[in-house]
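Practice problem: predict the structure.
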Amino acid sequence: MENKNALLDKSKSLALLIIKHCRNISEVKKEYILTRQLMKSGTSIGANIREAKYAESKNDFIHKYKISLKEANETEYWIELLFESELMNEEVFNELHKLNTELLKILTSSIKTLSNR
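Answer:
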């Protein structure tokens, strides 16, 4: 049960950081397309984890986690793209990348564990 709370907490923290930093990038750099993509995928991770709480079955639960994993992977892409295009500074990149990587690892491990039960 501890992983579920960590997953919810980390995914919400990531979403809030993404909102904060994307808002800043949009205001300062006048960039709206990439930040919108990052906001969509980055906030979707936690939404799907939360949705899994009321899954109709074990398979539905696993499916929601798999969607979250896909969204976290997409989020990583947008974070990298914003950083490598010099729209995001290294400090912000490191902060988002670290948290997203933690989510990827926890989700991957959780899906494997749940699938083997």
